[in-house]
Structures are given as C-alpha cells and as structure tokens.
Design goal:
The structure is a homotrimer.
Chain A lengths: L14 H6 L17 E5 L4 E6 L4 E6 L9 H16 L5 E6 L19 H19 L4 E6 L3 E2 L1 H8 L2 E5 L5 E3 L11 H11 L1 H10 L3 E2 H7 L4 E3 L4 H13 L3 H20 L2 H12 L2 H18 L1
Parallel strand pairs in A: 3-4, 4-5, 5-7, 6-8, 7-10
Antiparallel strand pairs in A: 1-2, 2-3, 8-9
Helix pairs in contact in A: 2-3, 3-10, 5-6, 5-9
InterPro entries (chains A, B, C): ClpP/crotonase-like_dom_sf, Enoyl-CoA_hyd/isom_CS, Enoyl-CoA_hydra/iso
Catalytic activity (chains A, B, C): (3Z)-decenoyl-CoA = (2E)-decenoyl-CoA; (3Z)-dodecenoyl-CoA = (2E)-dodecenoyl-CoA; (3Z)-octenoyl-CoA = (2E)-octenoyl-CoA; (3Z)-hexenoyl-CoA = (2E)-hexenoyl-CoA
EC number (chains A, B, C): 5.3.3.8
Chain lengths: ~300, ~300, ~300
C-alpha cells in the first residue's frame, strides 16, 4: 500500500489557511501551580519541557509562533525531547499542549517542502516518521491537552497520545484535512485515525478532509473529553494522576500490544515511504501548486 | 476463508418476501429540476442514466419492475453503464437511486440460481463480483439515494457508495438479510459491512439476517442521513456538490487507500469464490430448497 | 506478537479484590419455569447444565462458590460440558449464567498460578485456551445472562457469547481489568474485546484495566442489553427464541466467517503462548508479587 502527500491543482480555502493567517492577538498564560518542583528540562525555543520531579509528569509546551508548524527543526527538537523523557525513568507521563493562542499545532510546515532539494525533503519526511514512531510508540502515558485548533499533522500528534482533552470552543477544529489542500495523508496517518475512530469515519473524514468541531470530535471519538478552555491543562493533570495509578509495566505492555502492528507497518516501509514522498513532492506540478498556495496565503495576510 | 451462498432447509418469511410480493400500486415520479442540461446516456430498459453536463453528476435510476432485482442482465447493464461513466472524464460523481416505488433494490435475482447450468451460475456470480468491484472501487464520488427498502444485494449496492441518504420511512428497511433466507453473504459482502458498521454489529447483523429500519440504520451508521422521502434525491444532489468541491485527485487516492485491501482480497480469490458458489448452488438439496421458496412466493402472490 | 500474563510490583485495590472478599450472604434462587422438561445433563458440582428437550436450549449455571473462579477443575468441566452440548444435535443454544450471588465469574483462579510446577501452569493455561476456543468457536447460539460482576476472565466468557444481557445493577461491573492487577490480558483476550467494542475503546480499557458499570458497558457495546436483575434469565430465554428462529446452518457459517480469523491466530500460536505464560508466571519476582497479593486478600477477609 502506498500513500504519500499528493496534490490536486484545485485548492480550497480551509481551516488550515485561517490558522496560518489568523489574528493571534491575545496570548494565553499558563499558570503552573501543578509544577511546584520544576526541573527545567530544555531551554530550546520551540518546545518548552518541564518535568515535575514530584509526580514524574513532563509538560511539553509548543511555543513556535505563530502556529506551532511542524518544521524540521521543530520535529527534531520534539524527537530529542521525547527521547530524553523516554529514557528518564523518573518521567512517568507526558502532557502535550500549546503555548500559542488558539492553535495546538497547524501541522507539517509546508515551507519544508517548497523549493527544497530531494535530500532535504527526504530528511524532513524522515523526521515526520520519527516523530510519529516515537510518540505513537511511547512507553510513557501521553495526554494531549488540545487548547486550540489542530488540523492535519496537529491532529496526528493528538491522535498519537493515550488520551485527548480538547477545549470546548466552537472556533477550534481538529481533523486530517490534507485532502482539502489537495494532498493526501500517508498510510500511517490513516491507520492512526482508523485506530481512533474506526474505518467508516476515517474513510469519510479523509475523503472530505473534514475538520471536526470540538463537539463533533467528541461525538465520533476523535477526542475523549471536552472541558472549558481554562480547564484543559488542569484536567489533563488530573487525568494523568489516574493513569499513573495503573501498574506501569502492565499498562505499557497493553499499549504496545494494541499499537505494535500499526507501528510495524511503517517500520517495514520507512524507505519506500520516504522515496515515494520525495518523488512526489519534487515534481514540477506539485511545486507549482505549493507556490500558488503560498502566494494565496501571502495575499490573504496582507 | 471461504463463504458463498449456502442454505438451510428452514425458510422464514422475511422482508425479502414482502418486497417481492408487495402491492406496487402507486408509482413515484422524479421531477428533475436538478438536471437541466440532460445528456441521455443510455436508453437501456433496466437502468436510466442521465449525465448532467453542467455539474458532471450522473443519475443512475434503477427501473427494473417490480423490485429492481439484480438479474444477470441488470448486473451486466449496471457494470457497462458504470464503466462508461468511469472512463468519462466529464463525469465527477454518480447518484444511484430507484425509479420503482417503495424499493431501492431487492438484491440478487434468485431465478438466476434456479435450474440453471453450472456455466450460467458461474457467469452470474462473476457479474455479481464485477458489480461490486466496479462500484466499491469507483474513482467517482458515489452517493446512494435510498428511496425504498434495500435488502441483501440492495444493501450491498448502497454500502459500496461513499455516502448513503435514506428516506425516513418506517416501512423501509435495509440490511444483509441473507441468513433469514437460509443463505450466507460471501466474505466480501461481510467485509463491506464491517468497513461500514464495524465488526460487532456485522457479526450480529449477519447471524440474525437483520433488516434495520431507517432509524436503526442511521443509529448504527449503516446509512449516513435520513430525510423525508421527497427530499432524498435533492439532498443527494446537494451532498454531491459538497463532495465535488474537494480536490478530486486527493479524494480518489484517499478513497483507494481505504478500500484497496478489501478489494484486493476478492481480486486474489475471484475464481475460488466462483467455484465455491457454483458447487454449492447446483446441489440438489439447494435447488430443491430454492424451488420450495419460489413455490411459496407464488402461493402468496395468488 | 506476544502477550501473556505479566506483572508489576505495584498492586492497586480493584474490583477483583472486592469480589474475592465480598460478603456473599444472600443467595439467588433460579426459578425455572422455562425448563419444564428437564434432562439433567451433568451433576458435576461446579457447573449445572440443564438441557430443555422442548426447545433445545441448555442452561449452564456456574455454581462454584464463592465467585465462580476459573480454576483448572472449573475450566475442564466447562470444556467437557460445552463439548457434550456441541456434539448433541438436539441442543440448539446455550445460556450461560451464574448461580452465585452478585458475581457472574471473577475470572481466572490466581491460586492455579501460585507455587505450582511449570507443568501445572502449562496445563492450566492450556485449559484457559481450550475454554476460549470452544466457546468463541461454538456452533450453538450462545447467550450470556450476566447476573453479577464479571471482571477479567469473567468478562472474556461473556464476550465469547453471541449476545450479552446484563443486570441493570449499578454495583455490577464488567471489563478486562488485568492491568489493574499488574498483569496483562493475552492477545486473544485483546482480539475478542476489539471485535466487540472496537480498537480505541479496547486500547483505553486494557491500558487502564477499566471495569465498566452496566450502564457504561451498554454505552460502549460491551453488553447488548440491560434489564432488571430478576429478568436477566427470562430475557435471555426470550432472546434465544428469536435467535433459534434463524436458519441454523446459515447462521453458523456467518458466525464462523466473522470469528475464524481471530480463532486461527491462537490456533497458530498455542504452544508459544503457553511457553510464554509459563516462563513468565514461574519467575521468582512474579511468584513473590502473587504471594503478596494473596496475603493482602487474606488480611482483608479477616
């Protein structure tokens, strides 16, 4: 089975666009009464990681303005941070959230695919694979505190977690909307969604590139819980406490048993998947389409 | 895995019977304001195909009295019509509906399996396979406008589409009710249902040969939407407009990614599946059972 | 893929515990107006089997105080009883229920895994496999009349049936809660749950070792119907009548078509699955953990 990002000449305005061009005027502040004993884990600019030594819970905050796009740098930093936590036995669980207003993550950074060498594209795609392999295969308890919109790769990040709490805000949406942009989610995005919401909803959602409102996302099981926006992080922390009460070794094996077949499918196809992506994305017609799309974004911004 | 039509000595009266013997006194008329610029595609008697050159939407109306049974002729005509549309780049989507009152399609024509040569039975079964392969694997957007009951093969036709709109009429039902007739849906019917409503509902539905009311069908996800009977076709047309707004190439690849494994399973087993069907259906005991069933139908009609 | 019972040093108090230590003071009596013509099938102490020659329905009542633990003796008796019914053409369906108050079955008997020889452990695990293979693969209509709590192996028993009716009692719960005890459900427990409630709910339920209340179990599809406690058995009998109205041969083939792939997975891995279990359970650390757990149970009882 093969599926990489592909294109169509036609573009529609989508949630993706509105995110990129969104007026991000009011920030959000994270009070952190939950992390009394802080051990600053990383001072890198794109992701802030705080591991609370009291409870073993790490908070990963995406702080890459304006919309936490998954650039090569972001993905590399994410993989390194998660790997560190994975190897740290004092870390029991990871909460992923955004420090940017109104957006969890806008997904893959399209600039990494525009006018780049095949080598760069391959490196980028490998980083996307690694992010997924590390997060979907993590032994830690992972909880997504979805405090903003979460299209495409942002939705994938959320789906990789063990539990998803989303802000009950009608302006936020989540979904694998690649099709709306004329591209196609690769097979492991599809597998992750099917494991979350089932075959039929995935078939419909991927074909239409659906962005679900928070309410719709809850209804189909794409997220597990909606809470008022200012309670997303505290609810994630409370939920984490419940998950950490479970015998850890048994929980890890159960998680692995559920996810291993899906992970093995990409592991067995990493190189062909990269090749396919590079062949596709470096095509003249695709590059032209991406260029037109970026032009459109620029015009809207100005 | 093997599964073909099989039998049991016991027959129960079922929705299937009531369809065949139904009093089809009042017809239904299809006003067609939606197809201003008509290009009559086929003048064949069993299926009326109109391709609207304005929007690229083809309307396939089943008009094979009394109940749009899927005879060899019907299936052949259906496959040819769909193949023509598939190859026609001006056609973007296909709406399937019935021009017969109260029934979408009653499913496979049992007469094609009664007192026929093994060669005929093989030809018939191949036609059933081709219908499924073409419709489930279609690159076009396919929408079922289910304006009547839709048991067995009729339900399969509907499940092959990308979206299902059903008349909100408590007298209409839909489901793979083969078991009620003492026969068994083949594995690819089963796969199609499991892809639509999941494993558990399929297990229960196939074992009991359940015919779901429109309301129940919506609840389990066998259909996507219920509308008043006189709005089925207009809703299908409106829905089609939304689907056609999606970049076509990306949508096609997404659809194929979801359905290819299921399609490949039959492609790898076409001949064994035909052999198994023929071996089974030509057995004396089965022929006798079918004969008794047809006798019962006759008596009920008179 | 590998998964056997595994452990964690940490134990939490769980539903399992409360069951084992439960004050089972008031019994439940089974009036049996439904079994007029009784043919006492087995007089064994742990399971009472009554086959009603009038309708071909066998009632299997678990009567192994205090909580119908699945000991080697119980499992052996269960397999023999079911095998007898399976070979008895006059038997059409089997209703499984409990004669003990407040519990359907508490699951695998932990004493069979404590301070036992590798040979004994292997024998025990083989018996668990056989129970599952026979019940999940049964040709008869099987209905679980869940008149009490049903954790772990008890939940598995229920999930193996074709239909599940549970007492609408907020004090009863059901689920594969192995993780709560620091152990892990094997892959075929997991497959059975995924076939019943889907991938996502299984992933969450297994990781957390969730015990669902009757209401929750209905909502996620873990059981099919809730009725007042005194109507569980009568509803099971009425439901059985509907299932027995379906042509039997066709129903059997449909059932087999749905379950065969799952059954084949264990059949292909019986020996490795046993070896893995024995290797694990006979480890000193595991034996120590089980010992501590049993000590805790003793202290709570006294």
């Amino acid at each position: 089975m093969s599926s990489v990002l592909r294109h169509s000449a036609k573009f529609t305005t989508s949630g993706f666009f509105s995110l990129l061009s969104g007026n991000c005027s009011h920030g959000r502040t994270f009070a952190s009464p939950y992390f009394v004993s802080k051990n600053r884990y990383s001072s890198s600019p794109k992701i802030k990681v705080d591991l609370d030594s009291n409870n073993g819970v790490a908070l990963m905050q995406f702080q890459s303005p304006p919309v936490n796009s998954l650039s090569l740098d972001f993905l590399t930093e994410f993989a390194i941070s998660l790997e560190k936590l994975e190897l740290d036995r004092s870390c029991k669980g990871v909460i992923i959230t955004s420090a940017q207003p109104k957006v969890f993550s806008a997904g893959l950074d399209i600039l990494e695919m525009f006018q780049k060498s095949p080598e760069h594209c391959a490196e980028f795609w490998k980083a996307v694979q690694e992010m997924w392999l590390k997060l979907y295969g993590s032994n830690k308890v992972t909880i997504a505190a979805i405090n903003g919109s979460s299209p495409a790769g942002g939705c994938l990040l959320a789906m990789c977690c063990d539990y998803r709490i989303m802000a009950d805000n009608p302006r936020y949406s989540i979904g694998l909307n690649e099709t709306q942009l004329g591209i196609v989610a690769p097979f492991w995005f599809k597998d992750t969604m099917a494991n979350t919401v089932g075959h039929r909803e995935t078939e419909k959602g991927l074909q239409l590139g659906l962005l679900y409102s928070a309410t719709e996302a809850l209804k189909i099981g794409l997220v597990d819980q909606l809470v008022p926006e200012d309670q997303v992080l505290s609810t994630a922390t409370e939920t984490m406490t419940k998950w950490l009460a479970i015998p850890d070794h048994a929980r890890q094996i159960s998680k692995s048993m559920m996810r291993k077949p899906t992970i093995d499918r990409l592991l067995a196809n990493k190189e062909p998947d990269i090749k396919q992506f590079v062949n596709f994305i470096t095509k003249d017609s695709i590059q032209k389409s991406i260029g037109m799309y970026l032009e459109m974004l620029k015009r809207r911004k100005s």
